[in-house]
Amino acid sequence: MAQENQLGAIEKAEERGANGQGAILPDSAESAPSSTPDASRSPSSLDSERSHEAEDGGPDLEQLAAVSTGPVYSAFGKWKKRYIVIMVTFAAFISPTSANIYFPALIPLQQDLNVSTKLINLTLTSYMIFQGLAPTVFGDLADMAGRRPSYILAFIVYVGANIGLALQDSYAALFILRCLQSTGSSGAIALGYGVVADISTSSERGKYMGIVGAGTMLGPAFSPVIGGILTQFLGWRSIFWFLVILAGIFLVLFTLTVPETGRNVVGNGSVPPQGWNMTILEWYKFRKEERSTNGLSKTTTAENRRREQELLASRRRLRFPNPLKTVHIIMEKDMAVVLFYNALIYTAFYDIIASIPQLFAEIYHFNDLQIGLCYLPFGVGCAVASFVNGKLLDRNYKRVARQIGFTIDRKRGDDLRHFPIERARLELIWPILTFGLLLILCYGWVLEKNANLAAPLILQFFIGMSVNGSFNILSTLVVDLYPQSPSTATAANNLVRCLIGAGGTGIISIMIDHMGRGWCFTFISLVCMVTMPMLWVELKWGPGWREERRSRIVAGTE
Known about the structure:
This protein is 78% helix and 0% strand. It has helices at residues 2-20, 27-30, 43-56, 78-100, 106-113, 117-145, 147-167, 171-199, 205-234, 237-257, 263-266, 280-292, 295-315, 324-330, 333-364, 368-373, 376-404, 421-426, 429-448, 454-481, 486-515, 517-530, 533-557.
C-alpha cells in the first residue's frame, strides 16, 4: 500500500515537474545531496562569470540565490550533450534534404516516366502532406517509448524507401515511395527538438535549438546543389543512392553511440535504459561494472537499477501512437496562435524555394546544376540566422530574467509559471520578421524586372537570415510552451506548417502565371504582415492561456 501511494505521488510530481521543467527521477535520485554552486566552481571560473556579469550590465541571477535542492535537470555532461545535438542535427539535415535534393531531378523524371508537369509536381505536394502527418505518429511514440526506438524505426523505413526509389520505373511507384520516404524522414525534426528539450533547460535551449534549426534549413539550401551535380553527371537515380548512403551512415552511428534521452525512460539521464535500448558503449560499460563488483554490491546495484527502471516504467503506458494528441495540442489557444502564424511564414519561405527552378530557368535560362547553385545564398543566410538567433534567444532570456528579478537555475531547470517566456522569445522577432517580409516584396519585383542575377541572390541571403530566424524563434517557443511533450508539440508544428505549406507550394506556379512575379510575392508578403498582430495576441494573452493549461493538467492528476 505504501508503494502504491509512493507511485501516485511520483505521477503527480511528474506532471507538475514537466510544466515547471523539473527533473523526472525516482525518489532515490531526488534524495541525493546537492552542492551549492560556488562549491563546485574553480576560482578562475568564478572570475570569468563575474566579468560576464559586468558585460551584461548587471549581476548574474544564477548567483543571487542558493540553488534549489533536487536532482540536476540533465545528467549528461557538456560534451555528451554537444555530441547528441550534433547527431540529431545530422538527422534534421537529412529530412529536408530528401525534399529539396529532388528539385533538379523533376524535369529528367518527367521525361523518363513520360508524365505531365502537374503529375510530377503532385509528388512534391504529397511529400509535404506526409511530412506533416508522419511526425504525429513518431512524436507521440518518442514521448511514450523513447527517442532511440523512434529514430531507428523511422530511418529503417527511410532507407528502404530510398532503395525502392532508386530502382523504380513507374510513376505509381514513384508517388507511393515518395510518400513512404517522407514518412521515414520527417519524424527527425520533431524527434530532434524533443531531444533538445530532454537535455537542456529553457535558459540554454536557444543555442541548441539554433543548431538543430541550422540543420533543418541547411538541407533546403545545399541539397539542390548536390541534386543538381548528381543529376547532371550520374542521372536521377544517383540521388536516391546518395540518400541511402547518407542515412545508412547516420543509422549505424546513432545506433552504436547515441544514448536514450527520453525523460520518461531514463529520467534526467542517470537511470539506465532497458538492455535492448542501450548503445554498444553503454552495454560495454554495464558489463564492465558487473565484472568489477563483488557479489553483494553487484546484487545491490542490479536491484537499485531494476527499481529505478520499474518506477519510470510504471508511469509509461505503452500503446499504439495516437496522432490525435497532436490535434489536441493544436486546439490549445496559445499553441494555435503560434502554430498558425509559424505556418504562414514557413509557407512564404517555401514558396520562394519551390519557385526557383521555374523562375530561374525562365529568366536566366539555367540548367539543373546552375539552378542548384542558386540555392547557396539561402543556405548561408539560414545557417547564420540559426547560430546567431540561438545565442540571442539565450541572451534575451537572461536579460528578461534580470529585469523581473527571476533566478535562473541552469542545473535543475526553471519554473516557467512565473516567467514570461512569450516575452523572452517574441521580443526579438519584430524587427527581424518585418525586415524579411519587406525583402520578399522586393524579391518579387526584382524578378519581375528581370534584374541582374546578383540582385535576387543577395535578397535570398537576407531573406534566409530574417525569415528563417523568425521561424526558429517561434519553433523554440513551441517547445517552451509544451515542455511535457516536446516531440508531440513539434509534430503539431510540423503538421500545421506542412499542410498549409503544401497548399502554398501547390498553387505557387498558378499564382505566378496569373498574378505575375511581382504581385505574387507582394501578396505573400502582405498576408504575413496583415496577420502579424497574432504574435501580439500571444504576447498579451498567451501567459494566461498557458497557466490555464497548467492548472488543468495538475487538476487532472489529483
